[in-house]
Design goal:
Layout (H helix, E strand, L loop, with lengths): L3 H15 L4 E6 L5 E2 L6 H5 L4 E7 L2 E6 L3 E6 L4 E6 L9 E7 L3 E6 L5 E6 L23 H8 L6 H6 L9 H11 L12 H20 L40 E5 L2 E5 L6
Parallel strand pairs: 2-9
Antiparallel strand pairs: 1-7, 3-4, 4-5, 5-9, 6-8, 7-8, 10-11
Helix pairs in contact: 1-6, 3-6, 5-6
Length: 273
Amino acid sequence: MPELPEVETIRRTLIEHVKDLKIEGIKLIWPSVVCGWEDKAFEDLVTGRRIRTIDRRGKYLLIRLDEDLTLIAHMRMTGRLNYYPDLREPEKHTHVVFRLEHGEVHFSDVRKFGRIQAIPTPLCFSGSSLGKLGPEPLEADFTPAVLKDRFGKKKVFLKAALLDQTVLAGMGNIYVDESLFLAGLSPDRRVDTLSEEEFSKLHQAIQSVLQAGIDAQGTSFRDYRDANGEKGMFEEDLQVYGRGGKPCHVCGQTLERVRLAGRTTVYCARCQR
């Protein structure tokens, strides 16, 4: 599933192509992927509007159109938004084609979990799931104190707490495992046992790992691509994720692979005591 670095990379690579372009037409191949507003069909709401900018909130893209309309796009597990400078025949798993003044944007999704919702911009955070998201981990006002406050008095594993989007927005399995390794914290450590110093280490690790992921344009194992169809390169920097049974890059001990919070989790029992 695309996480914060992947969605941010899609945002950056897509906006450079589509900013201020008019959506001249929409081809719905699988209509269930989109959602209109009240009694207005998605095509009628969107056609003829210009793309002003693209924002991101957690794992969601917010495509801002003129006349106070926003498209909330969630990639889920295998969704992609690709820009093509010329007309392009839709591929097998393409569900929506946005025909622009110059080029097209195709939304494809092998597993059909992704969605694009049209919603009035003033209602973005009150009329959708965005209102329940926790703070953005790369914003200046996200501090170790904020992280501690978001954890509250939970008596759950660190892995489960960091995967909870109401605690912190944008992180998933890849960047949680990597952040915990960098912080030297075991994923099955209970959040209510962390010291002030450990909160600080975890906060710094989260920001460092996410920024490194963005700098590398995300992680591509299977489906993820940016808006230009390019893979991310962060896979080359992974310390633990996907490396269960292999030696730790730091100490050489065999990495453990367990199931936590319903997700496969990899960690080093020596580096993450």
